[in-house]
Write a structure and sequence with these properties.
The protein has 231 residues and is of the alpha/beta class. The chain has six helices and 15 strands. The model has no long low-confidence stretch (mean pLDDT 97). The chain binds ribulose-5-phosphate.
């Protein structure tokens, strides 16, 4: 089974949790896009759902495929969000934001009664941090914010480059107009301490650590899809 087939397997399994009439948060990334394609088929067959997209990219795909959309202000409370992840551990703490949508993803998932993560088994790790942690920052004061993040990392015994994300020649800009610093820490032994302290830096808009947000994960491997609950 190749990587795409595993994403489809996870997305198919997640689709079983979608019920008629649900208000859905719809994630961003290649795995979430497989979910959107399958969801669109169900909608074409008569399933009634309303979706809130977590990015402009996801919104475009939903509109193209005929998945009905609303804004989060129109639907401020959602039943279920289905989204991918860049890494997840046994406690279901996630690193997200590889696709740059972490802020909207976190707002949408937090407004949902349940969040199901869909991923292939390569995303499950013992200790988070091999995937660089995306930190969304305000462009104003970028250098000062970078210094503040470096200092807090040092206090927590973390080290690694903070790299300003680029898309080809330009600085990558999120849907909210912010920049992303990718933190190459390698290992994040205490995600909670890091999350709390990142949130205390004024120039940090949001970070990609999702703690106690996911309800469970559907992990696809060559043998099929399995459910992963927090330990
Ligand atoms: C986007 C995300 C994605 O969920 C994450 O990057 C996983 O993407 P993919 O399914 O393409 O591996 O957080 O901001």
């Amino acid at each position: 089974m190749d990587a795409r087939e595993m994403k489809v397997k996870a997305a198919q399994a997640a689709l079983q949790y979608v019920e008629d009439g649900m208000r859905l948060g719809i994630g961003t990334g290649s795995t979430a896009e497989e979910f959107v394609r399958l969801l669109a088929e169900k909608v074409a067959d008569g399933l009634k759902v309303e979706g809130v997209p977590t990015s402009e990219r996801t919104a475009r795909l939903c509109l193209e495929l005929g998945v009905p959309l609303k804004s989060l202000d129109e639907l401020p409370q959602l039943d279920l969000t289905i989204d991918g992840a860049d890494e997840l551990d046994a406690a279901l703490t996630l690193i997200k934001g590889g696709g740059g949508a972490l802020l909207r993803e976190k707002i949408v998932a937090s407004a949902s009664t349940q969040m199901i993560v869909i991923a292939d088994e390569t995303k499950v790790v013992e200790t988070l941090g091999r995937f660089p942690l995306p930190i969304e920052v305000n462009p104003f004061g970028l250098s000062s914010t970078r210094i503040a993040i470096d200092r807090l990392a040092e206090r927590l015994g973390l080290s690694g480059e903070l790299k300003l994300r680029r898309s080809s020649e330009d600085v990558f800009t999120t849907d909210g107009g912010h920049y992303i610093l990718d933190a190459f820490f390698g290992r994040i032994p205490d995600a909670e301490a890091l999350a709390v302290q990142l949130n205390s830096i004024p120039g940090v808009v949001e970070h990609g650590l999702f703690i106690n947000i996911a309800s469970f994960a559907i992990i696809a491997g060559p043998a099929g899809a399995r459910t992963l609950k927090a330990n």
